[in-house]
Each structure stands twice: as C-alpha cells, then as structure tokens.
Amino acid sequence: MTEARRTSLSAVGVFLAVLLGLTMLLSLSSGAFQISLRDLLGIIGDGPRHDASDLVAHNVFWQVRLPRVVLAVVVGASLAVAGVIMQGIFRNPLAEPATVGVSAGAAVGAVIAIIVGLNQLPLGVQVVAFLGGTLSTALVYLLSRSDGKTEVVTLILTGIAINAFAGAVIGLAVFVADDDEIRSVTFWSLGTLGLATWKSVAAVIPLAVIGMLVSAKFSRVLDTLALGDRAAAHLGVKVEPVRLQAIAVVGLLASSAVAATGMIAFVGLLVPHIMRIVLGPRHRHLLWTAALLGASVTLLADLAARTLLSPAELPLGVVTALIGAPFFLLLLRSTRRSQGGWA
Amino acid sequence: MSATLVATQVSVVRNGATLLDRVDVSVRSGEFVAVLGPNGAGKSTLLGAVAGDFPTTRGSVTIDGLPLESFAPRDLARKRAVLPQQIVISFPFTVREVVAMGRNPWLDDNDDERIEAAMRRMGVEPLRKRTYQTLSVGEQARVSMARVLAQDTPILLLDEPTAVLDIGQQERFLAVARSLVDEGRGVAAVLHDLNVAMRVATRVVVLHEGRCVASGAPREVLTPTLLSNVYHQKIRVDSTSDGSPVILPDHRA
Questions:
Q1: Which domain holds residue B245?
Q2: One domain, residues B239 and B187
Q3: What's the N-to-C CA distance of chain B in angstroms?
Q4: What is the pTM (predicted TM-score) of this model?
Q5: Beta carbons of A238 and B73 less than 8 Å apart
C-alpha cells in the first residue's frame, strides 16, 4: 500500500544535468544586454581574446556574465551540499547553514569589514566574512558540546542565540554606517551575485571543490546516523569525530559561499528536501543531485532577480525567500502527510 | 563464528547514584542469557555497559579476553550487535535500506545475501519497499531485529526484543533466537516476560537494585521465593499439563 515512491536515479541525473545546461545558457544570454544564442556560441568559440568583432557583447559575456553564472553554480551547489550534510548530522530536515549561525557569522564578518573600510581592499570583505563564518561554526560547536557529546537540540538553540546576536550586530552596524555603507551592507546581507568577478570566483572554487570532495566520504555514515547516535556507534561509526569533520565541511562550504555572495536563504533548506522526496534519503545519491539542483535553482533565482525589474536588480536573497518560503510550507505539509513525519 | 563476552565486577555510578554494583555476567557461544529484574533494576544499564556505550565506573568488560576499549569501533561492531528498545529513524528510509545499514561494519561481497537472509528470517521481505515510519511498532521491531541479524556478529545484545510483539510474532522470534544459539552465537537479552525467559534462556541473570541476586539455569533460579522478593509481588510457579513450568502472580489467600 504505502510503498516508497522512488524515481530512477539515472533519469533524475539526466534531467538535472540537462536542466543545469539549459539554465546556464539562458542565464548567459539573457539580461539587460541580450546576447542571442548564435552570438553566444560565436563568443565562446572566440575565447577570451580582445580582438572580437562585437566588443561589447564580448566583454559582457567574458567579464560580467560568465563569472556571474559560474559563481551562481558554485555557490548554489555549495549551499545545497552544506544543507544535505547539516540535515544529516542533525537528523533534522529543517537544519541548514543558517540554522546553526554559520551564515549569520559570515554576514557579521562582512558587515564589520564594510564598516571599518576593508571593502577598499581586493576581497577584503570576503576574507573577513569567511573568517566570521568559520569562527561562528567553531563557536556553536564548542558551546553545544559537553562530555564529548553534542546534543542536537542544544546545538540548534545555540544557533538561534548566535543568529539573534548577529542580527543585533548588523543592526548596530547599519545604525553607525553612512548612506553608502548602508547600501552596501543591505545589499550584502540580502545576498547578490552582482559583485561576481573572476577574482571572487577563483577564491570560492577551490574551497567548494575541497568541501564537496570531502563530503562524498560521509555519505554512508550520514545514512547510519539516521538511526541515532547510539545505534550508529553500534554499527562501528565514530560518531563524534565524524560529526566534527562534517561540521567543518559545512563551515567551509557555507562560509565561502556566503563570503562571495551574501546570505542566500532557502537554497540549503529547500533543495535537499526536494531531492529527498524524489530519490529517497540515501546520501550517496542526495549529495551530488542536490549540488546539481542547487546550482540550477540559484541560477534561475538570479535570472529572475536581474530581469524581473530590469534594468534595476533585486537582491537575490529576497527572490529565493519570496519563492522559497511559501513553496517550503507547501512541501512541509504534503510530505508530512505522505511520509509519516520525521520525529 | 564464536566469541566470548565477559563482564567482571562491573559498577556504574552516575551523578552519585549506583546503577550497577559489582555485577558479573558472561555470554558464550551457544548461550541465551536472559537478564531479568524489575523496572529500574539496572538491566538496560548492564546491556549498555557490556555493549561499550559508556565506560564503566569500575570493573572490566572483555571480548575474547581483550578489553572493549582496545577495539576499534568497526572491529567491535563485527563482534557484537545491539538491538535497542525502540529506534526512531529520522528520514524516510525503506525497510531494505534500514536492514542494509546493518552491513556498515562489513561492506563486502556478502552484503546482499546477508541482507536478504536477515529479512527472510524476520519475515519482513513483503515490507521491503515500505518506509520505516509507516510501519506498526511490531513491524518496526522486526525490521530492527533484521538489521541486527544482517550485522552477522557472534554476540547479540537485545533490549526487550519481544516487548511489542504479539504472541505469534513472539513465537517466531523465539524460534529465531534458538536458531541463533544453535549456530553457535551468544545472545544476551533483557526480558520482562518471565515465561519467555523460562522457555528460551539457557541461563538467567536476575538483577535487583543494581546487584546480581541470582544466576544459573532458569528452572533452578526462578523460584517463587526469589521472584516474590525481587518483584514485591507474591509469585507462584505452576506447571502445565505437559509439565513445563508457568510463572504466575499468586492471588490465592
């Protein structure tokens, strides 16, 4: 009667790959400056040289749009994978990097960097944001640990406290900032891909790649953790070291993503959730499919952010939250009914 | 496929309260050891201590002569499997996926065969594609037991394996338990049902307020005097028409 419906993995894989390819092409060609598909192929064929026939299109593509698309792919994939891991180690489908204060920590770092003028330095904000995110990850973990164990509820409550504190610090920063800085702080705390440059792409890619490669080795362990810490330990899992490593990977992925683009809500929450409904909860499949879908979702949201009110640009985090929050509520209700809750 | 688990003079003190006081217990190949006693006697604590869930305050637990602490987690998981009282699984895994988790310490060519055999043995194959959360409590208990069987260990530690089973499932479970013993495995189980213990156990250990008050063959140990003392309830031991003993509360004047 209530057999679990699972869609075939290869079909899902092909669909996600095609979806990502199409959204990338669409994102590369659309925007304030339209590039037709044929021109697009020509420009890609030309390569990043400067003696192209149509210099404007050429520059828009190579200097503005391509780094933006690549950044969206990397950041979207990172957030989705961070969400998968976080939900797995907390045994809670409502966890994401934002829940435990990783994103807020990175945001505080960035805002402080803007206020003290570090935004004058190349990647100054990003570096401080990364430090802030990693620091808050470590802090949350240390605070919620006692007797060599991490209680999940304590961990999430600690995250709530850190989020509240970070919100206050950002509010304070807005209070003392001048108009220019406020604009920068706001745009940043709402998330945007508009600041994408090859430099920021180059800074994020190695961290994202390391994080994702390491995350692959957790897939089986995350499955067994669904049984609870004690039963997982009975199956030979070194629960506490694994959890520490996994949290470090989440810190790496989420901090580097937030450092490059600001806070983008709901990708880390929604994408793992969708993939779990489609494929079931096995992390071996969940990790890479969530990465693909996370990239596509972020690209589409960014496309909406920069074309809906063109030439003005909406903050990306606003778009993801506007679409993500209601969608998530619907999802929550329907999956609770069909899967019998999560406990 | 045999191993010996020995706990010697094990004490567990937590927050000043003595939960276990110098308890000796062992599980050998071909034995079914039933751990009995009233609620709060320390049965689950004893099971947790011999499973290596937490360090004991005093005393030692060894498998084949080596202390538990000297085992790597994976090697320990190849020696002993543990069935907790109830397992809540946080994501909608299917029955087969849950049973397959029992192979985590092995991950070898035998995985599929062992998983299928374990599901057959507990009669949960028809449920294989159901998600664990949609099962009844009794079905969940059988799936968890199948997961423990898939782990394929010489020692099995079971915490109230029959508590949520109906009488038919209970009989099938006891048949499985006997066949495990016949295969030369050692089983230790916390039991509440004294008649089940009487029928299946090769040896019983009775705990009372953290101490071991009796151990030995069930027919010798489970006497009206001992049981009445331990459970604070007058208890008699009758026999059925075929001569097997039955333990009952005694309400005769």
A1: 223-253
A2: no
A3: 52
A4: 0.90
A5: yes
